[in-house]
Fold these 4 entries.
Entry 1:
Amino acid sequence: MPLINPSRVTEIFMDCHWKSDQTAGKSEEQLIAESAVAKTVACYVGFNPATLRQHQKEIAEMLLNLEPDFMESSGANGMTFLRAPLDKNADQWGEQQSADRLIALGMALGWVDFPFPRPAWIALPGSVPYVVVRDKKINEDLEKQDEVR
C-alpha cells in the first residue's frame, strides 16, 4: 500500500490556495507579496502561508516518504521528477500531476528545490528536472514549530 495519498495531496493543495474571504480588499500586488510561491514543472502558484503552515507537518511526512535519493542527506543531489510518483517503498502513489502538487507545497515551504536551472532541464532524462527534498531543513522547521507550541 502506498505511503502517500494522492487525494490528500490534492485536498491540501486546494486548501492552501487563497479563499475569496481572505483576498477581499487586497490588491493583486498585495496578494503576490503575501503569497508563498512555488514554480514547479507544471504550475506557478501562490499559496496562503497561514494555511500552508497549518498543513506543514502532513506535507513534511509526505515529502519524507518519497524515495531516499530525493533527500538532500542521501548525497545523491536529487532524483528525477519522473520518479516522484513513487514512495520510498517503490510503490506508485500517484501520477505526475499529484507529484507536481506535492512538490509545489514543499517548494512554498522552502523544503524542495530543483538543483539544476530550468534551461538545463532539456539535457536531463525526459527533459524534466531533478528534485531535491531538503530533509534536514524539514526536520529543523518541525523542531522549531514544536518548540513554539
Entry 2:
Amino acid sequence: MTEKEKRDRGFLYNANYDEEILNEINRCNDLCHEFNQIKPSDRESQSAVLKQIFFKMGKNVVVNTPFWCDFGYNTTVGDYFFANHNCQILDGGKVTFGNNVFIAPNCLFTTAEHAIDAKQRNEGLEVALPITVGNSVWFGAGVIVLGGVTIGDNTVIAAGSVVTKDIPSNVIAAGSSLPCTEKNNRSRQKQISALYGQLTFHHKLKVKLRRITISEHIFLHKCVRIMRKWLPWSYPKNADEHHNTCDAHLLKQRKIALFL
C-alpha cells in the first residue's frame, strides 16, 4: 500500500519522502502562488486558477488573496462560496463546503494531524481526517477547524473559536475546543433558555441577566447584535408599536443554541 493510499484510508502515513505526494503539494503550491499574484480586480483570472486548484467549484465563488491549499483536489466548494484574506486549507483529507459558506479573514481548516506517540511523530507519521461543512455556514475571523469535524447547516462559528468536534445545525458556537463547552455547561444552557421564555420586556432582560455570569451577559448581547444584522425582517415593521419586543424572545424563536 502506497503512502497516498494509507492517507486516503485514514491510516498513519509518511508524506516526507513520498515523491508522488510531494509533487502534488508542489503543484498546488505553485497554483496558489500564481493565484496570489493576480490583481484583486481580475476576478475572471482568479476564477480560472481556482478551477485548477479545487476538485469541484460551484458558481459565484470568491476567494481573497492570499490563499493557500495543500493539494486542492481534495477540496470541494459549493455555490456562493466566499473566503476572505489568508484562508488556509490543509486538505490531505477531503474538505467539503456546501452552498453559501462565508469565511472571515485568517481562518484555518486542517485535516492534518501528527501522531500522538512521540516516536511515530519524530518518524514523520501523520493522519488526514475529513472536514465537512454544510450550507449557509458563517465562520468568524480567526476560526480553526480540525480534522474529523462535521458542521451542520445554518450555523455560525464565532470569531477565534477552535472546532475539534461536530457542531449541529442552526446554532451559534463560540469558544475553544468546541463543542466540549456545550457538554460541560448543559445545565447552564438550559437555565438561559428558560429565561428566554420568561422575559417580555428588554429592561427585564437586563435585570435577569445579572443573575448569571458577566461573560454570559456580554455574549448574549453580542448574539442579539448579530441577529439584528442577520434577520432584520424578523423584527416588527412598526417599531413604535413594538418598542418593548424582547430580543431574547427573538433568539428563542430562531432556536439558537449558545455554547457558553
Entry 3:
Amino acid sequence: MTGYTKLFGSIITSTIWCEDNVTRIVWVTMLALKNQDHVVEGSVPGLATMARVTVEECRASLLKLASPDPDSRTKEHDGRRIEAVEGGWLILNGEKYREKMNADERREYFRIKQQESRERKRVKDSQGTSKTVKDSQGTSTRSTPKPNCASGPRRCRASRSALWRGCANWPAIA
C-alpha cells in the first residue's frame, strides 16, 4: 500500500501548516511515501530528492518533525510527528489517521449505497416495473416485475419461462 495516503483537510489548521514551506513539503512527501506500517523507508538524501529540497533543508525539516510540538492537537508523543527507525522514519500517529480514514470511507460507502437504493425505489413506476438506473460506479441495474397471471396460466407466457418459476401459476402449466 505504499504511495497512498488520504490527506485530511484538517492539516490546514494543524501546527504543521505553521511551519516553513520546506518542512511542509517534506512532511507531505513522507505521508505519500509511507508504507502500510507507517514507515517511510529511505535515507536523508533520498527523501530530499523525492521532496525536491536540499539535503540540508531535509535534515532541518526532519529535526523539526521529530521534535516536541507543544501546540500540537495530538498530545501523544509530545506532538512529535516522526521517529527515526532502522531504514527510515516512523510516522507516529499514522494508525490513528488510518482508523479515521477507514471510518470515513465506510460512512461514505454506506451513504452512497443508501442514496442508490432510494433512487431505485423512486424510479419504480406504479406497475412495479423499473427503469435502468446507474449506480455510483456507472453500472446499470434493471429490475423487472413478475408477470401478472390474472389472465390465467395458459395465457401468461412469462410464467412459462424458467425465469418466472416464482409465478403463482407456474405449477399449473408445468
Entry 4:
Amino acid sequence: MKQPTPTLSTLRACNWSLNGSRAATKGRNALSRRQAETARDRFLAALQPPPPTPLAATTASFPQPAPTADLRFGQLAEIWRRDFVEGQAGGRALVAASTRAKYLRHLQNHVLPRWRDAPVQEMRAKPVLDWLQRKVSPGI
C-alpha cells in the first residue's frame, strides 16, 4: 500500500528522530520536553571527541631536548644551518641556492664573529638590537 503524500500539517506534527524513525512532536504520542532534551544530550555526547591525553603520556615517547644551560650560539647556528639552510624536504632544498649562499655569508662574516661563544640562555634582545643598530649605521 502506497504511503500518502505528507501535507504541511503532518510534517509539522512529526519530526525525524535521531535514529531515523519518525517521532511525534505533537499529540498523545509526542516526546516530552525532558525526553527530547535527554535524547539530544545523548546524541551530542556521542559526537564529542575523546578527552585529550595527558601531556606526560604524549611526551614520554619523544626524546627530551638537551639542557640549554651550556648551549652556545655557535652551536645553535650550526643546528639551524644543517636543519634549515641546507635541509631538504621531499628531495628539494628548503631554501633556494642564492638565499642559502646569502644566509651562510652573513652568518660567517657578521653574526658568528660576534655571537659564536655567547651562551644562548644569557642572550637578551637589547644587546642584540644594539649590535644590529651599530651594524646598520656604523657612523652612530
